[in-house]
Amino acid sequence: MRRILGIAGIAAMGLFAAACDSTNTSSGSSPSTGAAKSSYTFYMVTHGDNGTFWSVVQKGEKAAASDLGVAVNYQGSNNDDTQECQFISAAVTAKPDGLVVSPHSQTVLDCAKKAAAGGLPLILINNCGVTGTGQSYIAYSGAITCVGQPESAAGQQAGVRLKADGGHHLLCVIHEATSTSLRDRCAGAKVGFGGTETDLVLDNAKSNVSSATATLQAKLSADTSIDSILALDPDVAKNIVEAAVAGASSKAKIATFDLSAGVVADIQSSKIDFAVDQQQYLQGYLPIVFLKLYKSNANTVGGFDTVKSGPGIVDKTNAAQVASLAGQGTR
């Protein structure tokens, strides 16, 4: 999922500032106190689960906090919309200098909108979508910008690539039933693929791996025409899709959204065809840069549009280049 154009240059500006530790808490815990000597304190509230993807986001915000000399209080709700809204409410009460939110659902987007309406500078990350009425999440919520990838466009690129690699029947695996961004990816993949496309919802797949694997394996055994599978998460690709494909003796090609060290290794060994890379490190790093610039210099970034962190494609042609960085947890 990853192409960096002008974004890298923006991120580099943070390297000129003095260092200071970021204040972080684990997923689902209550907020901790920000650093007393920091010039600014920002809150970052996500639906993250501290897994392969979100740990990289956290590394990004920690690095930005250190580079810029600010404090960041991070909270991950583990895909619990109610808890994410509670974290947003707690952030509003704490009166930080800015707020970053991943709008996991319409419910969370509404909570973020309420925070922004109260005067709290808001930046969205990860899910830069549109509402059911066609309004961008940025405009709807009153956010400065959103750092992420256009999910439908990213899905479309994945579908085009799987079709070009010989696919005729695509299965798109949705591992969170309420996630609008995951459904947007599959909808885009259907357009790009152009052939037969089927969605399979394995809700809470990451918390019940054995059940999800068995369901997918049964699906592949029952329908041998499925020759392409698109996972929407690196852990799902590694822990569920690969096991189900092996168990069903399927020849389906596997592609995934997002990277991990294991996914990169499997791309190099041809177990996985490619990964769509949204460079989630930037989704942690850039919002802190943007909020610091907004507070210190009245700068706004993005022109009320998405600052794209992806998509890009990682396949055998460039997997070696990102392998060591994925191992370090920054890609």
Structural descriptors:
single chain, 331 residues, alpha/beta, Rossmann fold, 2 domains, six-stranded parallel β-sheet, six-stranded mixed β-sheet, 12 helices, 12 strands, 44% helix, disordered N terminus
Oligomer: single chain
Specify the biggest β-sheet. 6 strands, parallel
Named CATH topology of the largest domain: Rossmann fold
Secondary structure tally: strands:
12
The top level CATH class name of the largest domain: Alpha Beta
CATH homologous superfamily descriptor of the largest domain: Response regulator
Span from first to last CA? 11 Å
Gyration radius from CA atoms, angstroms: 19 Å
Uncertain runs: 1-37
Measured as a percent range, the helix fraction is 40-55%
- Mean pLDDT, rounded to whole units? 89
Shape: globular
Written overview of the protein:
This protein is of the alpha/beta class and 331 residues long. It folds into 2 domains: 7-149 and 278-311, Response regulator (Rossmann fold, 3-Layer(aba) Sandwich), CATH 3.40.50; 151-277, 3-Layer(aba) Sandwich (Rossmann fold). The protein is 44% helix and 17% strand. The protein is built from 12 helices and 12 strands. The chain has helices at residues 7-12, 52-68, 81-94, 106-117, 137-141, 151-164, 180-193, 209-222, 234-247, 261-268, 280-297, 319-327; strands spanning 41-46, 71-76, 98-101, 122-127, 146-149, 169-174, 196-201, 228-231, 253-257, 274-277, 306-308, 312-314. The strands form 2 sheets. It has a 6-stranded parallel sheet with strand order 2-1-3-4-5-11, sandwiched between helices. Strand 8 (228-231), helix 9 (234-247) and strand 9 form a beta-alpha-beta unit. Helix 2 (52-68) packs parallel to helix 11, helix 6 (151-164) runs parallel beside helix 7 and helix 10 runs antiparallel to helix 12. The longest helix is centred in the last third of the chain and has 18 residues, at 280-297. The N and C termini lie close together (11 Å).
